[in-house]
């Protein structure tokens, strides 16, 4: 397995790594775990941890904050690798409600950060680190559209969560980073779990099969097509015997979902997935001082008029109703063949 073994993100499975960012909002129960050969974990759930020997290589090079130098991890499943029959880690759920009723994507990222020991808070992650566009100018690949604090927020795609994670790691001076696995097959996703890496996955609320529909034209000129049941969870286990997957669902807690349906919904949601990677020794470690954090904020986040809308181009690109032109009716994309909804996710 080469270099990957010395830096596999999930080698740190300690009790601290399971600490919730939101106190009593975390939820245990509703799920158990099954053994897999190449991972270890520990949690507050009382479940007996798995243990596995991991090769460790000393990391002498450091970045400017004293963290290990970043090393890219090869997360590609080898062509000759055969996924096993079952494997489950354990990720403790962080519930998105009541603060973030439509903030499942950033809450799922918070779950994963907590899993590795980082003391992330879902609200701070939403307000400071997630690109937010509340006037509908950018696409969902560039920002969360709407307000995750409200019931009528829309959502974002994988690139936004990757950037939020990487900005957070930059803020604390860490070598860790997020990798976008969008387009991966389920075998490739299950491979991540067998390597000890839970995966953020785009799915739907209650595993409802529903298609995208036209919402409005974005300020950038592109159309927003949105699945009103869009949802995000952390996938941390699979079991071909039971035909289920194990997830930390920010709306309902730790659950098992039907494997075939989950895989089908994953494909319908554009196969979006994200993992976190980094050195074992730096998992959960904050390397920056308060002064360095303040400087980072001054450089990277400028809030105006009390608004947490930090894509500042929004202010210069507003178009008045008088300037807006009548747009022709649009046809639904050929790829959408399911029932649609006009409501934003709740």
List keywords for this structure.
Cathepsin B, Chain A; seven-stranded antiparallel beta sheet; 7 helices; two-stranded antiparallel ribbon; globular; alpha+beta; 346 residues; disordered N terminus
Give a nutshell description of this structure.
With 346 residues, the chain is an alpha+beta fold. The protein has 7 helices and 13 strands.
What coarse outline follows from CA principal-axis ratios?
A: globular
Number of strands: 13
Approximate helicity band:
10-25%
Largest sheet: 7 strands, antiparallel
Taken in chain order, the helices and strands follow as HEEEHHEEHEHEEEEEEHEH
Write down the CATH topology: Cathepsin B, Chain A
**Total count of helical runs of at least 4 residues:** 7
